[in-house]
Amino acid sequence: MISLISSVIDNGIFYLVFGATALIAASQAIARVISVLFNYAAVRNTVFRSGQPHGILLPKYLFLVALNALLSYVGIRFLTSITSIPVVAAKMIAETILFLLNYAAQKVYVFRHSGEQPLS
User: Fold this and answer.
1) Is residue 23 part of a domain?
2) Which residue among 4, 7, 24, 60 has its CA within the 20 to 30 Å range from the CA of 106?
3) How far is CA 82 from CA 78, 97, 113, in A?
4) Contact at 8 Å (CB) between 90 and 79?
5) Number of domains, the chain
6) Which residues have C-beta within 8 Å of that of residue 38, sequence separation ≥ 6?
């Protein structure tokens, strides 16, 4: 449910900003910052139930967010360059593909519980 709400926030803001500016990177950055503020607090406390300090979790989470945003941007550019898919649809396709990878990365890299070893 948290992912769905985060996605609605992200895509809604992206759609509004892109409609006003036609700039993919700026639209994605603004939308991502707003959705990340909601998502971090929600997944830290309810999904992964992590009690680790923000000083440890937040840098790893923000690194993952930046990597995810870069991959999403590349995916959007790639899809719109080889097809006639509109930008908003390309964003949804790219981020749907990244969704499962992102969840796994959060579970293994960011919100790993004490004593758990990261996957090698």
Assistant:
1) yes
2) 24
3) 6, 17, 42
4) yes
5) 1
6) 5, 6, 9
Sequence length of the chain is: 120
Asked, for residue 33, whether it belongs to a domain, the answer is yes
Residue 20 CA to residue 18 CA, distance in Å, equals 5
Residue 75 lies in a domain: yes
- pLDDT tens across 77-108, in order? 999 999 999 999 999 999 888 887 877 777 77
CA distance 52 to 85: 42
Neighbour-count burial of 39, counting CB atoms closer than 10 A to its CB (0-12 exposed, 13-18 middle, 19+ buried): buried
Domain that holds residue 68: 2-110
Q: pTM above 0.85?
A: no
**Residue 18 counted as domain residue:** yes
**CB contact burial 69-78 (16+ within 10 A = b; e otherwise):** bebbbebbee
- Yes or no: say if 113 and 99 are a contact pair by the CB < 8 Å rule: no
Q: What sign does the CA torsion over 34, 36, 38, 41 have?
A: negative
